[in-house]
Amino acid sequence: MAGVTERTLFDVPVGGQAVIAAAMVDAKLDRRLRELGLRGGAAVTVLQKTAGGGRVVKVRDTHYALDAYALKHILVDSEEQDR
């Protein structure tokens, strides 16, 4: 697909939903994200912004606060998922 730019979880607006494509982080953080359910194919909803550029996200029925670094390194599908 020519002209398609990579979108990260940081780019998803509050109230928006997306599907995680991949996490471009070191192995330790990748493992922790997967343990929390933040892995490829997982549907995520951005609930609110936090101080320092972070976000509170919802995966299934659980809420997590992620910092801006993690958000900017989690790639999401370019199309928002309707739920």
TrEMBL record:
<dbReference type="InterPro" id="IPR007167">
    <property type="entry name" value="Fe-transptr_FeoA-like"/>
</dbReference>
<dbReference type="InterPro" id="IPR038157">
    <property type="entry name" value="FeoA_core_dom"/>
</dbReference>
<dbReference type="Pfam" id="PF04023">
    <property type="entry name" value="FeoA"/>
</dbReference>
<keyword id="KW-0408">Iron</keyword>
<dbReference type="InterPro" id="IPR008988">
    <property type="entry name" value="Transcriptional_repressor_C"/>
</dbReference>
<protein>
    <submittedName>
        <fullName>Ferrous iron transport protein A</fullName>
    </submittedName>
</protein>
<feature type="domain" description="Ferrous iron transporter FeoA-like">
    <location>
        <begin position="7"/>
        <end position="78"/>
    </location>
</feature>
